[in-house]
Specification:
Strand order of the largest sheet: 4-3-6-9-1-2-5
CATH topology of the largest domain: Rossmann fold
Radius of gyration: 21 Å
Number of strands: 15
Number of domains: 2
Distance between the termini: 47 Å
CATH architecture of the largest domain: 3-Layer(aba) Sandwich
CATH class of the largest domain: Alpha Beta
Length: 354
C-alpha cells in the first residue's frame, strides 16, 4: 500500500479570517528536480503529478494559533477551511506555523519515510500561512503564466511541452521578474513587508513545481492559488479561466479589506479583462495594473487598449509594458519601490536574458 501524503498549499488571510487548503493523496513523495535531469525523469515526474490516488472523507486536524480545527476531504481529496485566529497577532510578523494531521490514520506497513521507518506513525505535515502585517503599504496580486513563468499559454502544444518535458531548474522566468518582485515586497521603505499572491488557472497538480521554481529563481515566497483539474470544456474555456481568477482575486481582497493592491499580468489571455472587472468592482482599492505585452495580434492589441481606457475612466492606470524594467521604472515614479533597486532589476533582466 502506498503511503498517505498531505499536500498543503500556503494559507493566507488577515487577523480576522485565514483560508487554509490542501489535499490528501496516497502516493510516494516526488523527488526534488535535478538541473541536468534527463527527458525521461521530467516526463515521469510530470505524469506522477497527474496520476493521483485521492483520499476522500478523511478528517484533517489543523493546529494553528494555539487552537485546533477540523475539516473533511472531498471526493477528490481536497480540503479547505476558513478559520478565525481569535488572538492578537504579534506586530511585524508575516508568516505563522500550521500543522496538518490525519485523524485515526497511521502510515501503512512497509512504508519508510525520509527519516527512516514510517510504519505506524501518524500522518503529519508542517506548513506556513501568511498574514499581511498592519504596516503593509499594499498587496501584490500576480498572474504566473507568461507573467512570471514562460509557458507559452497562448499555444496549447507549447504549454504541454514545457509542462511535461521540463522541470523547475530548466523552466525560464521572464527577465528581471525576481528582482522586481523583491523590490515590490520591500516597497519604497525597505523595512516594509508587502504580501505577494500568485494566481493562475494551472491545476494544483503543478504546485510543487512552482514552489521549486520560485525558490530556485529567488522570487519572493507567497501563497500560490491554482485550480482543481477538471477536464471539461469549461476548464479550458476563456470563461472558465476568467471566473476562476476573478474568484481567487476576490478571495484575497476579501480577507484583506484594508489593503490596496497592485495587479500584474500579461496580454496573452484574459488578464486585462479580469483586472478591468476588479478595478470596476473595487473603487479605490487598486493602485496600478501592469500588463506585459506578449500578444502579436492587432485585434488583441486593440482590445487591450480599450480596457486600458476603461481602467483610466475608473481612475486607475493600467499600463501595457514591454518588459519588467519598464514596469519597475513606473513603480519607482509612483513611490511603490525604492529607486535604488532599479540597477539590480536591470542587471537581473540582463542576466536572465543571457
Amino acid at each position: 500500500m502506498k503511503p498517505y501524503q498531505i499536500i498543503y498549499y500556503r494559507g493566507f488571510g488577515s487577523p480576522r479570517a485565514v483560508w487554509l487548503t490542501g489535499r490528501v493523496l496516497r502516493q510516494n513523495e516526488l523527488v526534488s528536480p535535478a538541473d541536468q535531469a534527463p527527458f525521461w525523469d521530467n516526463l515521469s515526474a510530470s505524469v506522477s503529478r497527474f496520476l493521483t490516488s485521492e483520499v476522500d472523507g478523511i478528517t484533517v486536524r489543523i493546529e494553528a494559533f494555539g487552537q485546533v480545527f477540523r475539516t473533511v476531504t472531498n471526493d477528490e481529496g481536497y480540503f479547505d477551511i476558513t478559520i478565525d485566529p481569535a488572538i492578537e497577532l504579534p506586530t511585524g510578523r508575516a508568516w505563522f506555523p500550521v500543522r496538518y494531521a490525519l485523524e485515526g490514520v497511521l502510515q501503512p506497513e512497509g512504508y519508510e519515510g525520509k527519516s527512516g521507518s514510517g510504519q505506524g506513525r501518524e500522518v503529519v505535515k508542517d506548513g506556513q500561512l501568511m498574514i499581511a502585517p498592519a504596516y503593509s503599504q499594499f498587496g501584490v496580486i500576480s498572474d504566473i503564466d507568461d507573467t512570471v513563468l514562460v509557458t507559452g499559454a497562448t499555444s496549447l502544444w507549447q504549454t504541454l511541452r514545457l509542462t511535461f518535458l521540463e522541470n523547475a531548474f530548466t523552466r525560464l522566468p521572464f527577465a528581471g521578474v525576481a528582482a522586481f518582485y523583491r523590490a515590490l515586497q520591500g516597497g519604497a521603505v525597505t523595512t516594509l513587508f508587502n504580501p505577494i499572491y500568485f494566481v493562475s488557472s494551472s491545476p494544483w497538480n503543478l504546485y510543487d513545481l512552482l514552489i521549486d521554481f520560485f525558490r530556485i529563481q529567488g522570487i519572493p515566497k507567497g501563497p500560490i492559488l491554482l485550480r482543481d483539474l477538471d477536464i471539461n470544456a469549461s476548464m479550458i474555456s476563456k470563461e472558465g479561466h476568467h471566473l476562476h481568477k476573478l474568484a481567487m482575486i476576490r478571495k484575497v481582497m476579501d480577507v484583506n479589506p484594508d489593503l490596496r493592491f497592485i495587479l500584474l499580468g500579461d496580454s496573452g489571455q484574459q488578464d486585462p479583462e479580469i483586472y478591468a472587472d476588479i478595478i470596476r468592482d473595487n473603487p479605490g482599492r487598486i493602485v496600478v495594473a501592469y500588463i506585459r505585452d506578449v500578444s502579436r495580434e492587432a485585434d488583441r492589441d486593440e482590445a487591450v487598449q480599450h480596457l486600458i481606457q476603461t481602467a483610466a475612466n475608473d481612475n486607475v492606470p493600467m499600463l501595457l509594458v514591454p518588459n519588467t524594467v519598464a514596469a519597475a521604472e513606473h513603480a519607482a515614479v509612483l513611490g511603490l519601490i525604492d529607486p535604488d533597486t532599479l540597477p539590480e532589476i536591470r542587471a537581473d533582466r540582463k542576466a536572465d536574458q543571457e
